Each structure stands twice: as C-alpha cells, then as structure tokens.
Amino acid sequence: MWLATPRPTSVSVRAGSTALVGRDVEVSAIVKILLRRPAAVLIEGEPGMGRSRLLEELAGRREFAAGRVLFGACQPMREPFPFGPVLEALRSAGDRPLGPLSPVAGVLRPLLPELAESLPPQPEPLTDPCAERHRQFRAVRELLMACGPALVLIDDLQWADEGTRDLMRFLAAAMPPELAVVSAHRTGSPTGHGTAGMPFRTPPNVQTARVTLGPLDLDAVGKMAEELLDLPRVSAPFTAKLHESTAGIPFVVEETLRALRDAAGQLPIGEVLSDRLLESLEVPVSLREAITERLEALPEPAVRLACAAAVLAVPSEPGVIGELACLTGDALRSALLSTLDGGVLGELGGDRYGFRHPLARKAVYDTISGPERTLLHTRAIQVLAEQPVPPLTLLANHSRAAGRTAQWRHYAEAAADGAIAHGETSRAIDLLQSVLAEAGLGQDDIARLATKLSQVALRGFRPDVIETLERILEELTDLRPSVRGTIRLSLGMLLVRTIGRLSRGRVEVEKAITELVDEPELAARGINLLAQPIDGLTPLSWHEVWMERAREVFDGLEDPELRIALAGDRIATQAHIGNGSAWADFEALPDETTGVAERVQLARLWCNLADAQSWAGHLTRAEKLVTEGIRRATDAGALYAAGLAQGTRVRLDWVRGNWNGLAEAAEQLRDGYPDLGPIVMESSLVLGGLAAVRGEFAAAQRHLSAASVHSPEHGPIPVVLSAAGILIRVLLATDDVDGACATADNAIAAARRKGVWVWAAGLVPAAAEAYTRAGRWSEADAVVEEFARGIEGKDSPVSRAALLSGRAVLLDARGKHPAAATVFDEAAASYETLPMPYQAIGARERASLCRLTGGNRKALEELAAAAEAYERLGATRDAGRCRHQLREHGAWAPSQRGRRGYGQELSPRELEVARMLSDGRTNREIADGLFLSPRTVEQHVAKVLRKLGARSRTDVARHMSTYAPATVDR
Fold first, then answer.
1. What is the C-alpha to C-alpha distance for residues 207 and 652, in angstroms, rounded to an integer?
2. 440 φ/ψ sector (left φ>0, alpha ψ -120 to 50, else beta)
C-alpha cells in the first residue's frame, strides 16, 4: 500500500509515557483483586485502548514493590518462540534470592541461562515429548513458587503460541499461593484467536477478574490534553472536539495531542488549539502506520470498500458503500466482514458502517490517488443524488472534491437554505462562507448569498462573518442601496456584539437605516437596535429618541417575526431600566409560534428578559426565564441568544450563592466565546467576584479589568458598575483607599452619564464606603441620595436593598452605630428575600460589628453565625475576617462538641490551606486570606504536605486533584 499524498519531511520525538488518566476505577479494582493472592486478571480491549499502558502502571504501583514484578510480552512473529513471554518474564527472577527448588527446576537451565547459578543441575531429558513438556510446566510453576510474592504481567496474549497458552492454562489450574498474573489481550484481532481458551478456568480459591477497557470520557481526554500540551486547563469546546476527532481512544488521543503540540509551536497564537487546526491536522505517523498495516492485510475488494467509505466520509448503509466500490451480493458481504474483522471499519448503529474516528478515515483517504478520488467523488454524487431525500451538504462536499464548481455552488446554497429553515445556524454559515470565499461569482450571486449570510449570522456569533461582510461592502461599490443597507445592518449588529467595536457598530447601523429607506421593515431592525441602552456610555436620553421611533414604526409592520422582535426588545429594555409594566406586557405575548424565525425572536425575548430581571433582583423569576430561554434558543438555533443566556446563568449562580463548580463553568463559558464581548465580560465579572471572596486580589483585579471596569464605554453598564463595586472592596481590603476612590469616581461618573441608576445597586454601597474612609463626606452623601432619587418608583428590589445598605454605611461611618445596625439588618432582610446570600451575610456582619462597637456583647453570636454562613458559602476570606474579629473580642473558642481528631485526613482548615497552595498562593497570601499568623500557616502547610504525601508545595495541586475528604456526620 503506497501513500497517494506525499508527506513533508518531519521528525517525531516521543518523550516517554504520559500519566495514566481516566482509568482510576479500573486500576483500583485490579489492585484490590491482585492483593488477594492467588489472583488472575485478564485485561482486554480494542487496539489503542491502553492495555500496555495499564500494565506499566500496575508494574510501578507501590503496593507490589515488596515482591517481584515480572514482565513479558508476546510478539507478532510468524513462528513465535515456545513459552516466549513467560520465559522473558522469568529471566529477571534472579534479582533477589529464590526459595528452595527441587531437581525438576533444573530443566529450565537451557531456557533461562540468566538463572543458571540459581537453578539445580539439568536432569537427563525424557524420551517422551509430552512428559518432557509436563516436566517443564512443573518447573515453571515451582520457580514461580520460589519467587515468593510475585506479580507476572503478560502483554499481547493474542499473539501467544499454543505452547504458551497451554502453559498459562496449566498455571491457572494450580497457582502458587503468592502469585498474581495479569494478562492483556487485544479484542477485534484479525488473528482469529479470540478470548476463548484464556487462562480463566481457575479453582475457586483464585481471585479472578476480566476488565474490558473502553474509550475515555470527556474529562479524561481533557486531563490528557492539559498534561501533553502543558496547559493549566483546556476549554470545554476544545475537549469536545478532540474527543469527537479521536473517539476517546487513548492511543489516538495521545498521538493527536503530540501532533497538535508540534503544530501549535509553528502557528500564530490565533491558530493554536482551534477547531480548524484539529480538522486540518495531519494524521500522526504512528496512527497512520497502524491504519496502513491493517489496510495492507485486507483482500483487494475490502480495500476498495474501505476507500469508498473514506470518500463518503459519513457512516453509510452497506448498499451505498458497495455501490460506490462496485461491490454487490456475496462479494460485498465478504468485503464488509473483512474490514470489520481487520479493525478498519466498524458498525456504528442503524445498519451503518464507517470509521471509528475522523483521523482513521483521513488515513485511508490519503492512500487514494488523485484521479481515483475524483472518480469516486463523481460516483458518490450520482449515488447520493438518487436517494429519496438527497443529502445536500454531502452532495456539495463531493461536488467540490470532484472539481464540479457549478454543482458545488448549487448544492451548497440549497443546503444552506435547508439549514436556515431547520435552525442549523453554524452549518448554514459555514456553507455560505465557503461559497463566498471562492473566486468567479457574479455580483448578483454575491449579493444574494451575502444577504442570506448577513441575516443568518445574527442568530449566532462568528467573527469571521464580520470580515466577509466588510470585504463585500468594500469591493462591491455599486450594490443597490437596499442590498448594501441589508448587509451593512447585519455588519453593524455583529460589531456591536464585539469587544471594543460598539461605537463603530452603531455608526454602521445608522448608515444602514439611511440606505434602507425603501425597506422600512429592515430599517426598523436598525432603529430597534439603537433603542437598546445597556451597552456603552451613550446617555439613556439618546436611546429614548430611538425608542420613540421604534414605537412609531411598529404599527406599520406586517412581518410577524419583526413584530415579535420589536415587542420583545421593548419589553426587555423597559424591564432593564426599571419599568414595572414590562412584566405584564411579557405575560400578554403569545407563548408559542410556528415559524423558525418567530421562535428565534421569542427565545431572544426569554433570554433578554432573564438578564433584565436578574439585574433588577427578581432572581427566582430570572431563574425560570433563563432555563426556558436556553432551551428555546437551542431548539430554534438562536446560538447568540443561548450564549448570552449562559452568561446570565453563571451570574445568577454567583449572586444566589451557588458557587460549587462555578469558577470552572465561568472559565469554560468565557473560553467558548472569546470574541463575544457581553459573555467575556459577564463571565469575567463572576470570576473576579469569586477571586475576591477567596482573597485572590491580583486575580480578581485581572478578571475585573476584563469585565471592562476601566473602559465602561465598551461594556454592558450593569456589568461595569458591578465590577467597579467589587474592585472598590478589593482595594479597600488592601487599604488602597485612594485607588478605591478613583474607581468609585469613574464608575459614578459612568452611572451619571448613562442615567440608569438601577444598574448601580452593586456600586453605591461600596462607593459610599470608599468616600467615607477617605473623609469625602459630601460625595458619600450625594451619591447615596442621587441613587435614591434615581431608583424611586422603579421595579428593582435589589436597588432598594442596596439603598438601605448605602445608608447604613453612612450611619456607621458617622458613629451612629445602633441606627446603622438597625438599617443593616433591614438591608440583610431585603437581600435574603431575593435571595442574595453573600450580600445578606455581609449586612448581618456589619450589623453585629456596629452592635459590638456600641458595647453589645450579644452581637458576638451574630458575628459567629456570619462566620459560619460565609464558610458554608465558600467565602473563606470573609469567614476568616469574622473569626479574626471574634478573636480580637476574646470570643473565639473551639466547638462545645470537642475538637475532632482528623488523623491522616485533612482538617477543614488544612483543606483550605491545601486549596490555596494548589492555586500557587504564598504563605503570606494564605495568612492574609485566612486572617492567620504566618507561623500558624507554616504549621498548616507542614501538615498538608505530610498528610498528602506531597514532595513540595508545587506537588500539592497534583495530590489535591484526586483528594476526596471523608464525609462525617455532624
């Protein structure tokens, strides 16, 4: 078999085995069996599942270090050596003294010259070959018994000769009491041996197990990627794509990652780890060789069938593959069985056959010569076009591969139309982009295709579409105004969503409105967008002009989709700015529609209204809206709306105190939409808040900067003002009062310019705190009262709670502690009803401190309760601050239930320290975060290292990744 596609010169370097991932359950079960001797375990799995790597892991386990670990492997030879793997394993048995041996063991001297000094003299050979072989078997068993505790590992048993198989059966029938044997066997092997006859007919006293290895799951693939690519984490979309491309087969995953690592070093940063890089990756050499080896072992009709399947590229029925390969009847059945037995094709369900993973298909496809490929693709067009429902996307792909440009354009546009109708946004964009990227299109074709692309692109978010639309507007200067306006409108809408391009996007939309003078319904979409006030520093009054224009054009609209779009955006906008009638207007709208476009707009409304209600403090209502909105948006193909709703979801979890796994979810969301400004900023806000409560102030400032806290003109103002509130508290915690005031000045200026004070609920109490700490009393009073006037009559429960909190801050700063405590309690009660537990606990803490300042010692119980509440929430630094205050007041004491002994398990405090060590925190940072002395932290660190068995501070993270604290009844 020769490669049709020449390969560039390359050097492939392997740096040894990777850490075993995704097999913890299997390893644990096998080790448990092997410790109860005698024991026999069979590990089986398809090629590439990691049988050999698992044997290597077992060989290095510390549980077996006290005994002998003997390893042997069968080889795929035409005439294997008799007993080869067993003798190979026994050659190293002399590394320590053996037990007593009878004269019969001397028969092994010629077979094991390495052990000659340890073996008895060789006896005279027997004349009966069967008796001689029996004596050899007895000698092997005796030698294994003399080894004492021993673990024998035999790999690739499918290649074993009959003599080795007989020997293994003999040993299994009467195993030495201290012996454990693990054999690895490849399933799906073309040798025809199968698993029948494996050494598992053992007496009842032998512990046995059969372990079948399957593909890795997503988590394991992600961990392997992090290790081989030397990254702290990889994104969920990348992991999913890698899993899809490799079918989770460990060998394929590893080889793909090694090739990715090599390719990534030669590409610009923007290409590294992208889906496009995965799809265009060359098949790794070792994987190509493995596939080619299997292909060479097939008969010629089976090779033709495999090549036909590679050209079809998707799982297909046998008749379709056979028609392409010119095979029918018995010839087709025989060829199909050969490809299945040879591990080239697999049955993938629904009477369809194909390759287990795309790289296997690509390896076979690359063996096909250019002329033969063209012929097969042309034949595929004929075969697929005759199906009752022609697969348009596949027909487009085959037409392009066959060089039939006109056919390709026809099928690609038809497939895009079908994808648009069925809500398959990404596929439609891909198809239209591919056609528009080709030369030779007429202007009318470009205008038609670009119009379709510009409209469907608004359902999702693809930065590459922006480049395409910009290029078309620049190159085609004589487009009709209505066509130019349609394309420009979508361009402007996409730019508005992009980080740092808000202003330019609005300019493009305004231009588009003037070009769409003869298309009033399209112009209405632009007017509607400019009426949305949430982004940037443009005053609400400017948007209100466009709101009025949107109301004026609404009655003249006939398109039902556009009417729903404008009505939905008006409702969401009014909810955002605190208009209480918005909810009644929402309930008056129809709950369901029939068309895809109308369903997209209803899904947008649910998602946008969830965002508005969450900022207003209607959190229970928002939770229901976001759950249903994501479902609707996903079903309708409204990918952009679904993405925004995911941002709302993580922020809802943040404010409602659902913090378990939240950092990972926010990071995955941000990584999944790196160019989509609203999602990046909202997820960064959550990450900044989580870092702040953990005392990771440098990380918090980095995340909050990404939330546009320093550039409000580019971000959603509710996010910007909330980020500013968190940043002020971070700066005050480090006694940077000047920095906190500067942040407050900028954020308050942004709120005043925007004119929507309900969005400042997270800012005002923190700004008042900063101003009072700096002695800027008039500004502190002014901002609280301005906030009060701005939220008067607005439907915003969170703003009312924030106003109470801000006023309590002013009272506390002026020394009016009893009054401040009362108002803090009112604020806490308001936050609790939302519920916003972190803010509620904070208000309870402040109330207790006010009472303590006034001499009320009963408040110590309230402060202790706040510490426990912070602890349950995961706000470790805040809990530490409360306990520090309790110690300062002489009130901190061990629990009345007595101090629990934790033994080798980490105590709760040690667990906190271990997690902070895993994050790379220094002792000083841990001390500051937990309000402990450096000496106390040193003691905790020493205990963590000892209990985890970690060699160093940096080794703690590895141990913590698998540490599972015991649960204790309390």
1. 52
2. left
Which amino acid, 225?
Answer: A
* Crossing angle of helices 677-693 and 662-672, rounded to 10°: 160
* DSSP, res 316: B
Question: Which two three-digit tokens encode residue 941?
Answer: 């660190």
The one-letter amino acid code at 389 reads V
Q: Which residues pair with 831 in a beta bridge?
A: none
Residues 14 and 156 sit within 8 Å (Cβ to Cβ):
no
Q: Report the distance separating Cα 188 and Cα 192, nearest Å.
A: 9
Tally Cβ neighbours within 10 Å of residue 897: 7
Among the residue ranges 69-83, 487-501, 702-716, 923-937, the one predicted with the least confidence is 923-937
Number of Cα atoms under 13 Å in the Cβ half of residue 561: 12
CB 968 within 8 A of CB 902: no
What is the DSSP code string of 167-214? Answer: HHHHHHHT--TTEEEEEEEESS-TTS--STT-S----TTSEEEEEEE-
Q: How far apart are CA 470 and CA 486, in angstroms?
A: 13
Express each pLDDT in 443-490 by its tens digit.
899 999 999 999 899 887 788 899 999 999 999 888 899 999 999 999
In single-letter form, the type of residue at position 681 comes to M
The pTM assigned to this predicted structure is 0.69
- Token pair 């605190």 is found at 578
Region at 920 (left for phi over 0; alpha for psi -120 to 50; beta for the rest): left
Q: Which residues of 480-500 are buried (b: 16+ CB within 10 A; e: fewer)?
A: eebbbbbbbbbbbbbbbbbbe
Return the residue matching tokens 């069925």. 422
User: For residues 152 and 70, is the Cβ–Cβ distance under 8 A?
Assistant: yes
Pairwise CA distance, residues 873 & 885, whole Å: 19
SS3 772: helix
In degrees and rounded to multiples of 5, residue 858 shows phi and psi of -65, -20
| Contacting residues for 771 by C-beta, under 8 A, at least 6 apart | 741, 744, 777, 779, 780, 783
pLDDT score of 953: 74
Concatenate the DSSP letters of all residues of 16-42 into one string: SPPPP-S-HHHHHHHHHHHTSSSEEEE
Tokens representing 96 are 């320590």
For residue 806, count CB atoms less than 10 angstroms from its CB and return exposed for 0-12, middle for 13-18, buried for 19 or more: buried
Torsion angle of the four alpha carbons 942, 946, 952, 954, in this order, in degrees rounded to the nearest 10: -90
CA-based radius of gyration for the chain: 35
